[in-house]
Write a structure and sequence with these properties.
By secondary structure, the protein is an alpha/beta fold. Helices cover 53% and strands 7% of the residues. The chain has a single domain, classed as HUPs (Rossmann fold, 3-Layer(aba) Sandwich).
Length: 371
């Protein structure tokens, strides 16, 4: 028997998240988690600015004899653009990195150009080998797994780590933040570091060997963070981050342009989040994104409900994007429709690194208790 549909009384997360839990008042675990992380990792006003200045001073001191004292990824989206703005405001000297996987929208490219020129940043653009990356994306589509975007996320992390190591950079400024990104069900994504899973899926479904694709498995990630002493700085958790106000700042100072949705600066990401995920996996990420804004007090629950009534895609825009994406992936309509009808598979149905990760986590917890 199917369980009855239920929605949180505080946010708009609901039972399309198969692991959601509600308390006796009808409030979901995502709201409780937001309150927990916000109380520990979110700073505002003078307290946030003081802590941020202390972090900036530490970064400057560490990088005083280097070309750059920190590194940041720049996609042209709200979060990364605002990170670049605050880095400049604090007097930091970042190396900006833009990752081109072949799916950048014209708006995102223009946004990156405007930010870089206005702030006089040095920009390193990493361009993926398109034929190899296309084959990897096709493999993930054929594998029928949920997190196709795992490929881009993994490659970005690997690229940033490599550039940080080559330039002796110890601080990585990232746009991850509490107020817009705390809420996301674990079942709606997969471990970005799991190179074993990527290789297994590619070996099973791909036509090419992984050669130029940037990789950074669990061990390399741990070594880079622990031994290489790379520090991740979530700079937006130290400022009063209001998404709408941030957009206004970027528009006013840089002539920056909004692209319509979270992570929609990528054409493929937009198609993935607004079509593939809801159509095949019954996942509408707007629920999580809007719930974050509810919990952070930036919108009301009623406003979020009204926003959810809007179509995910304009029909003509969907037709154009789908036609462009299938042509670029060398897929026919029939081939793509067949892929969309394949039974959903878990990433864990293919070889993966979860067992090793779990073992390392147990060791880490034991070591922490022994201190």
């Amino acid at each position: 028997m199917e369980s009855k549909y239920k929605i949180c009384v505080k946010c708009i997360m609901d039972t399309t998240d198969c692991d959601i839990q509600f308390d006796e008042n009808g409030i979901c675990n995502h709201c409780r988690y937001y309150d927990k992380v916000a109380s520990k990792g979110l700073f505002s006003g003078q307290e946030g600015e003081t802590k941020l200045q202390q972090i900036a001073d530490e970064i400057k001191e560490n990088g005083k004899d280097k070309d750059y004292d920190c590194i940041l990824g720049l996609s042209g989206g709200v979060d990364s653009s605002l990170v670049a703005y605050h880095a400049n405001r604090l007097g930091l000297r970042p190396l900006a990195v833009h990752f081109d996987n072949g799916w950048n929208s014209e708006i995102s490219v223009r946004n990156v150009e405007k930010i870089v020129q206005k702030l006089n940043l040095d920009l390193h653009t990493y361009v993926m080998d398109w034929e190899e990356f296309r084959d990897l994306q096709l493999s993930f589509l054929k594998a029928s797994v949920l997190d196709i975007e795992m490929l881009t996320d993994h490659a970005i992390i690997a690229t940033m780590f490599d550039l940080a190591r080559k330039n002796g950079i110890k601080y990585m400024l990232i746009g991850t933040n509490v107020v817009t990104e705390s809420i996301l069900p674990k079942s709606w994504s997969y471990a970005k570091w799991d190179i074993r899973n990527i290789k297994a899926i590619q070996k099973r479904f791909g036509q090419k060997r992984i050669d130029k694709f940037p990789t950074c498995g669990l061990l390399k990630t741990m070594v880079t963070k622990r031994i290489g002493k790379i520090h991740f700085v979530e700079i937006l958790n130290y400022v009063d981050y209001n998404k709408q106000k941030a957009i206004e700042i970027l528009e006013d100072r840089f002539g920056w342009q909004y692209y319509g949705g979270k992570h929609y600066e990528s054409i493929f990401t937009k198609f993935y989040q607004a079509y593939i995920l809801p159509t095949k996996f019954n996942i509408d990420k707007r629920k999580a994104h809007l719930s974050n804004l509810i919990c952070s007090g930036q919108i009301t629950r009623n406003q979020a409900i009204e926003e959810m009534k809007k179509a995910l895609y304009d029909p003509e825009e969907l037709r154009e994007d789908k036609e462009y994406i299938l042509k670029k992936l060398c897929l026919t309509d029939e081939e793509f429709n067949a892929i969309m009808k394949l039974p959903v598979r878990s990433h864990l149905d293919y070889p993966n690194g979860q067992r090793v990760f779990n073992q390392l986590e147990r060791i880490r917890r034991l070591l922490r208790r022994s201190k």
